Amino acid sequence: MTATTTSDTTPPRRKLSALAGLLPFLAPYRGRLIMATVTLILSSGAMLMVPLAFRDLIDKGFVANAAADSHINSHFAALGLLAIFWAMATAGRFYFVSWIGERVTADLRSAVYRRMLAQSPEFFETTRTGEVLSRLTGDTTLVQTVVGSSVSMGLRSLLQFIGGMVMLGVTSPRLFVITVVLLAVVVVPLVLIGRGVRRMSRDAQDRLADTSAVAGEILNAIPTVQAFTQEGRESARYDRSVDDSFKSAIRRARLRALMTASVIAGVFGAIVFVLWLGAHAVISGTMSAGQLASFVLYAVLTAGGVGVIAEVWGDVLRAAGATERLIELLHAESRIQPPANPKPLPQTRQARIEFQNVHFHYPSRPDTASLDGLTLDIREGETVALVGPSGAGKTTIFQLLLRYYDVDSGAGGIRFNGIDLRDLDPAELRAQIGIVPQDAVIFSADASANIRYGNAEATDEQVQQAARTARADEFLDRLPDGYKTFLGERGVRLSGGQRQRLAIARAILKNPPLLLLDEATSALDAESEAFVQRGLEAAMVGRTTLIIAHRLATVQRADRIVVLEAGKIVEIGTPAELLHSGGLYARLASLQLMA
Hints:
six-stranded mixed β-sheet, alpha/beta, ABC transporter transmembrane region fold, Rossmann fold
């Protein structure tokens, strides 16, 4: 399953049920949920007692016995105690509900993030990272608002509405019946308009995610944008995306405003009409002044409850759309799964790799074979170079070895130390492999932490030794704080060659049985390349190594060179043998020499 934006074809009832996806995150906090419910009931009960207290105060204190100070004092004292109790219960409700909202949101963010870390590269071929980040931030904030505030307000208002309606019936059955009939008319627009708000909420969130995706993509490519002087074009593209998001949000806001206005106007109109009838009842003597006062207060509480419910309902609808989008990510399944009973890998310093009639098509390009019947045996401790034109399948071999993808079913397999990769836990397999990518990834941390990414338990001495082997120490020692120097986002404070040397040091520190070098020295000048090449050769001693190289001068010391073209092996042999064979390797070598 991928987390792409989908059209809104799901029935509204089912979409609202997306909130049920939050139940597993609420379940661990049953105790606090119970406390929140108890304080909610107590605070709502205290609120509903206020009109009764005012009724008795008016009828027994002001009207029936105005000269009796004791009645007035006792009633005001009761009101004061009721206010204190109400305040304490409300404070408790606010604390417990806020705690639950913050905790559930944090757990949800962590769960979605962990799920994303487990996805294979195939997932991110169809899902933009900017959209994922939008869901992790914007959508979880909506969920937090609802769980930590809106739901509590909605439930309180619902109890306020139900309790108020009951007390209205107790106070004056005749006026209560009239009120119910009038309020029933108000519910119809609430339901009809709510469906439109639900659809627009999901659309607005999708447009916001698109905006985040555009911004994330461009901000990560600022040098390229500026080099091609595309600032104006990208700014205009972002403006269009922001404008689309704005228009979608305004359509939702307009409909929500209409819904809120319809509900509040209808409810208060009904209440005013009923109060007019009540005023005549007091004049005629069929209702006391205290009863009318309490009826007014209960009518206000009921109307206020409906108004809050109408407002909260819009938030709940938005949260339903946000939850649905988050649950999509949470339920996204990676095609690369560990087997039910993974086989253990022996702990060795070297690795043997066997490709047995491997066929592979990328899921996004099912009609084009990236590997077509590849068979290759790489012995323990051997250094093998993979060369060939772009698109020949060199990088695909690395991705299959790391089990980012699985080979096509029914078409051979890849064995690591005699075990099929599909029988291994991907995490255990990758722990046995070190890689130096062509585009070195540097994290927003200091140099030491970036190297230690290869082995979190390494000592400072081991980190420094790995840096010396990769010839990274010569520039690290010149940094303001040495190995503790912060390198900036994506290592912007370093040159391309320096970033690559750090990546090499990281792989060396990992000390894996299999080392994968993907153009590991492509960003280095000739002098640095000579230094690093010696470091790499030291790291490769006694270790199985696969090298991808376009510059053939870097693979002259390989034990064998495998020449690929269109996913097939077309030549294999030592550098000297291939140079004199007159085949593809010889042509590539001659072109580089001529260049």
